Amino acid sequence: MTRIYRAAVIACGRMSYAHGRAYEALPNVELAACADISPEALARFGETFGIPEKRRYLDYREMLAAERPDLVSIVSLHHQHAEMTIEAARHGPQGILCEKPIAVSLGEADAMIAACQESGTMLVVGHQRRYNAQYLAAYHAIQEGAIGELLSLESHGHPRSSLLVDGTHTIDLLRWYAGELPVRWVMAQIDTGEGREGWGTRIENACVLMFGFGGDLRALHTCGGAPANPSCDDGSTDASDRIALWPPVVGGNYHHIILRGSEGEIQIDGDRPREGIPWVRLVRNGEMREIPLEPYAGPEYREAVHVPLVRDLIANIETGAPHTLSAASARATLEVLMAAYESSRARALVRLPLEVAENPLFAMLDARRSDSGLQEPAR
């Protein structure tokens, strides 16, 4: 008989529905319980997926203790990932799917990984764009030698993007395209003038980041921007009101990627194609041609990709094989982000492995507030 895995979701905001639909779509998974501190969010999620009221919890710890789920999705704010993952691991689930980024510091990520290793839990992190059709198409083209030897990688985010919110996806993709080779060094500069926050976490306004994999393979990433009119309060969410570090990147193509090889280059327009331009294209010998996309299930592919992600998680639990979105891989991506902040703080190239457990951005902002005599607001 096929084993049925009982799944539970912690935090029932917008992204939780992608997790819920994936569990609902798999015949060997029962979405059994959910938890959120908001009664309204809890009720909406519970009603959508037919979860009985007695299995809807306002305290995720109570849910974990009572339900003992096999699979746990953690879809909370960034700074809650570590606490919730460590607590979930204490209850011995077989798999945890935590949203990206894995954590907001390397110290937190290491604690999460250690807790899951101790409990025998497979921890994977939601860098699910590896499953998206356009990024898969580019990956397979590289593997098949479409551009020869990979020489450099370039990526750009939209004017309101940041490393921890969006860049974590892009850097993960670049590392994937590079065969997950170890990153050896990072050099970056960031702008923090606006005091921005994203998903409950302090983030930078803009970043220019370079890193090397050893040998001659190099990568460049830019994200974010600045108010077009610095004299006004930039409260708008309209990217057109901001200076973009890479002007062609707008809207859904914010994981804009260029992969250059010895025999050509691959260009990817991110999460949405631009009208009249192939979504993924190969430029070689002065000619451009479209690279066909891998098939995906329907137009809502951003949600649908969680289905194979969870299916692979279950298969890997049963076989012991590593998941493509393993916690170790997510930590390697986080290390690049933290090294970018450390490089900006130190005003120097940073060599990896990074021996800094804290978040250098937070430390830099705290030091600046302390020097100015201001108190950091309580969280």
Give a written overview of the molecule:
With 379 residues, this protein is α/β, with parallel strands linked by helices. It has a domain of 149 residues: NAD(P)-binding Rossmann-like Domain (Rossmann fold, 3-Layer(aba) Sandwich), CATH 3.40.50.720. The chain is built from eleven helices and 18 strands. The strands form three sheets. Strands 7, 8, 11, 12, 13, 14, 15, 16, 17 and 18 form a ten-stranded mixed β-sheet that branches. Helix 5 links the parallel strand 5 and strand 6. Helix 4 packs parallel to helix 5. The protein is globular. About 2% of the residues have low confidence.
Short description:
The protein is built from 11 helices and 18 strands.
Number of strands: 18
Determine the N-to-C terminus distance.
48 Å
* Topology-level CATH name of the domain at 5-129 and 302-325: Rossmann fold
| Spans of at least 5 consecutive residues with low confidence | 296-302
Strand content: 15-25%
- How would you sum up the global shape? globular
By helix and strand content, what is the structural category?
A: alpha/beta
SSE ordering: EHEHEHEHEHEHEHEEEEEEEEEEHHHEH
The CATH superfamily of the domain at 5-129 and 302-325 bears the name NAD(P)-binding Rossmann-like Domain
CATH architecture of the domain at 5-129 and 302-325: 3-Layer(aba) Sandwich
Give the overall average pLDDT.
93
CATH class of the domain at 5-129 and 302-325: Alpha Beta
Radius of gyration: 21 Å
How many DSSP H or I helices?
11
